[in-house]
Design goal:
The protein is about 15% helix and about 40% strand. Helix 1 crosses helix 8. It is globular.
Length: about 475
């Protein structure tokens, strides 16, 4: 496999070690021992106007974006996990660990409803993102929890600790499987491949983990309909000569990147366990790496205080056309997943920022404008109540609102884009065990009933696991952008 990795740019804004990186379809976030989180635009890698984010009292260990793009989370030695608005940079909530233990790692669930935080006392906390409340906190290891991530189905998560084990859990923190001595001397990182596969009655996931033993490992986690969970080693990758501190799969699950104490960044072909590239541009330990969720681009961060942005490919092709559209277009934003009439006040603020009306955010918030109120605004209201005196600005806002009204009037939705249960346009389509696609929320409610049969065939479902239908979601987004 011939592949090129080219350095796009290098960011040097932090004053201390870069500890973690996160990429959404719009933003790059980096956190550091200098107590800050910095946020950049993925279009030109310029720092956003509200960056850096300052609220932590000590160094920031980890950061991550929610899948909807609305939130950025960061955690610190100060025992807090902070939720930030990606629209305004405001701290939405500060979630304090119940035992005031330093928090080392955090991760959102795929549906952005839950947030994990792993601490130095061996506990993991599960937070409800909507209510900003603690759902449960449990002891999961005798060592520090240094790694955690959700499975792509969102129905389980895994933790890795300084004791060296990988531990698979249900959302209620009940054990599904434990892999003892996964890494000698400790697990430093882990990451699920975004894709999962189904083989008869078995669902298979790929997991990467890196440890103090200088090894990067790829595991196969199998869920059998009757036999439970099994974890087997697929590859042990040993191209790095010192502890592996970070790892990340590409959005398509074909590539795996890792960073090490030996100052290198490695890129592997996942399907063959083949080393493709060893990048040596960092001067100190490589502590962080993250792939874009929709492009063949990744970032690496180091104790040399720099963040390097890399592109994978021949210098021209970054991803397939539908994926490029999802990055460059506005339809991939969090608020666009909901009908305008159902937008919250925060959705309206995000929409204003994206349309270039940042100066109006405070005014709209002061009037508690949600989606339903937004599409009812007119010239008189904007003039007399909002005091928008500029005719040009008023006209631009009204034209955008008119576009939103038009989007509500579209009724020629292809039948395959409608959920069989709700008969509404799907926002987050998933494939169930019966082979049909449904809206995630509707199907989750369906399978939580005593009668776990297929809504389409009425036959029993062999498994309740749901697989994200990314191709259908992309097709729906493209249809929405052309209507």
């Amino acid at each position: 496999m011939v592949i090129m990795a080219s350095l796009l740019c290098s960011l040097q804004d932090h004053r201390d070690d870069v500890n973690c990186l996160a990429l959404s379809d719009r933003f790059l976030a980096s956190c550091s021992g200098d107590k800050t989180v910095r946020v950049y635009s993925c279009e030109d890698f310029r720092e956003l106007r509200f960056s850096p984010l300052r609220a932590h009292a000590y160094g920031v260990h980890c950061c991550c974006f929610s899948s909807c793009g609305r939130y950025l989370a960061s955690c610190s030695t100060d025992a807090r996990t902070i939720l930030w608005s990606t629209c305004t940079g405001a701290a939405v909530a500060a979630l304090e660990h119940p035992a005031r233990a330093p928090v080392r790692v955090c991760a959102f669930s795929p549906d952005a409803r839950s947030l994990l935080s792993g601490a130095c006392d061996g506990t993991v906390a599960v937070w409800d993102v909507t209510s900003k409340t603690l759902q449960r906190c449990a002891k999961v290891s005798e060592g520090s929890v240094l790694a955690c991530c959700f499975s792509p189905c969102g129905q389980m998560f895994i933790t890795g600790s300084s004791q060296g084990e990988l531990h698979l859990w249900t959302l209620s923190v009940k054990t599904l499987h434990m892999q003892r001595e996964a890494h000698d001397l400790g697990v430093n990182c882990c990451h699920f491949c975004p894709q999962m596969s189904m083989d008869g009655q078995t669902v298979k996931f790929r997991l990467a983990s890196g440890g103090q033993d200088n090894r990067l490992r790829i595991w196969i986690i199998s869920q059998h309909a009757t036999a439970g969970y099994e974890m087997s080693l697929l590859y042990t990758l040993s191209a790095q000569s010192a502890p592996v501190l970070c790892c990340a799969f590409s959005f398509d699950g074909q590539l795996l990147v890792s960073g090490s104490v030996d100052k290198t960044v490695t890129v592997y072909d996942v399907n063959h366990g083949e080393l493709l590239h060893t990048l040596t541009q960092h001067d100190r330990y490589v502590t962080a790496c993250a792939f874009s969720p929709c492009m063949l681009m990744f970032a690496s961060g180091s104790m040399d205080k720099t963040v390097n942005i890399w592109r994978i490919g021949d210098g021209n092709a970054e991803a397939s056309e539908p994926l490029k559209m999802s990055v460059q277009g506005r339809k991939s934003l969090g608020y666009s997943r909901t009908l305008v009439s159902d937008w919250s006040e925060e959705d309206v603020s995000e929409w204003l920022c994206d349309e270039g009306f940042e100066a109006l955010v405070d005014t709209f918030r002061a009037h508690n404008i949600d989606g339903a109120e937004l599409i009812s605004l007119n010239t008189e209201t904007l003039t007399t109540e909002f005091n928008i005196e500029s005719v040009g600005l008023r006209g631009r806002v009204l034209r955008k609102i008119k576009d939103l009204r038009s989007s509500l009037m579209d009724s020629d939705v292809p039948d395959e884009f409608l959920c069989p249960i709700t008969r509404e346009l799907m926002k987050d389509p998933v494939i169930a065990a019966d082979g049909f696609s449904y809206e995630r929320e509707a199907m989750e409610s369906w399978i939580n009933t005593p009668n776990r049969s297929s809504p389409m065939t009425n036959l029993p479902l062999q498994t309740t696991l749901l697989t994200a239908n990314r191709s259908l979601k992309t097709a729906i987004q493209r249809w929405k952008s052309s209507h």
